[in-house]
Amino acid sequence: MVERTRNDSDLDPDPDLDAIFGALAHPTRRALIEQLAGGPESVGELAEPHEMSLAAVSKHLQVLEDAHLIEVEKDGRVRRCHLDAAPLSDAFGWLTRYRVFWEDRFDALADYLETESQ
Amino acid sequence: MVERTRNDSDLDPDPDLDAIFGALAHPTRRALIEQLAGGPESVGELAEPHEMSLAAVSKHLQVLEDAHLIEVEKDGRVRRCHLDAAPLSDAFGWLTRYRVFWEDRFDALADYLETESQ
DNA sequence: TTCTTATTTAACTAAACGGGTAAATAAGTG
DNA sequence: CACTTATTTACCCGTTTAGTTAAATAAGAA
User: Fold this and answer.
1) What does DSSP assign to residue A102?
2) A interface mutation test: which of B4, B5, B8, B118 has the most A CBs within 10 A?
3) What single string gives the DSSP state of each residue in A50-98?
4) B44 CB-to-strand D distance under 7 Å
5) What is the pLDDT of residues A18-55, one digit of tens each?
6) Tell me: the pLDDT tens digits for B71-91?
7) pLDDT digits over A72-98, tens only?
8) Residue B3 lies in a domain
């Protein structure tokens, strides 16, 4: 073990990634993101399909908001949530650095992207 | 809340993603992956730069192994770890589905990929 | 104002996480 | 065998996570 004054978390080169990957690590939160990909929804609407209390979903949404993956705006007594997927590009970028280790699939994806963007 | 017999985790469409994203959510584990991107290393070598016990690093490596992000093979009394970044493509694939929400940056990445693959 | 609806917050619990140290294992070396 | 090295495992501990129910807020409706 190296001797230093600070610990690993103090020198975390990208604490955002902790929050982003952490947020994506839970199936309910990924499901919520998928729901929001279809357009903005209120907390109640988002909660409806899930087999847990609204309060629990509310907390998951807070985690997503802390990771800046969603934004919540007040609309009367309703909180309307919408996706802000921009931080996903941070995660995407990090993963991209390891593309060399799965070059084949990466090439396939690159081909796909080229085709798509035509 | 929807009424069902099972709960959300039972119908997790991709439990692998829980493990993969969860593994990536910790700075030490991302650092370990970066180290292994430079080539295989033993547990001791991997642990050296980190300001924590070897036992703690060993546990982080176990998390990475559970997510199939690394493979560990015995080489005498040394355990040699190497990256198996293939599962990252699962994560990459999931993120790709939300590209439409950060299209600008995505286009930039796609351009970059096209250039790189020339 | 009172009632209802939408959502968060508080308080609690069980389990998981991330770390530590010390003991156990495994495998070379003398 | 005894000793050393490499690594894991066991156990402990404090914090966080993910869920619960119930109370608190906020705001529209009567």
Assistant:
1) G
2) B8
3) SSS-HHHHHHHHHHHHHTTSEEEEEETTEEEEEE--TTHHHHHHHHHTT
4) yes
5) 999 999 999 999 999 999 999 999 999 999 999 999 99
6) 999 999 999 999 998 888 889
7) 999 999 999 999 988 888 898 899 888
8) no
Bigger pLDDT: B32 or A111?
A: B32
| Tally of structural domains, chain A | 1
- Using only C-alpha atoms, what is the Rg of chain B? 18
pLDDT value at residue B118: 45
Give B4's contacts in chain A (Cβ within 8 Å). Answer: 51
Contact A25, B22 (CB under 8 A): yes
Is residue B4, in this structure, part of any structural domain at all?
no
Interface test with A, best of B48, B98, B99 (most A CBs within 10 A): B98
- Let me know if residue B87 belongs to a domain: yes
Prediction pTM value: 0.85
Smallest CA–C1' separation from B7, nucleotide? D19
**Closest by Cβ to B27, choosing from A18, A31, A105:** A18
Closest by CA position to B30, among listed B85, B93, B105, B71? B85
Protein residue nearest nucleotide D26, by CA to C1': A77
CATH number of the domain where residue B59 is located: 1.10.10.10
Task: Decide if B6 is inside a domain.
Answer: no
**pLDDT value of position B12:** 57
Q: What is the sign of the dihedral through the CA atoms of A69, A73, A77 and A80?
A: negative
Q: What is the pLDDT of residue A10?
A: 44
Q: Which domain holds residue A108?
A: 13-116
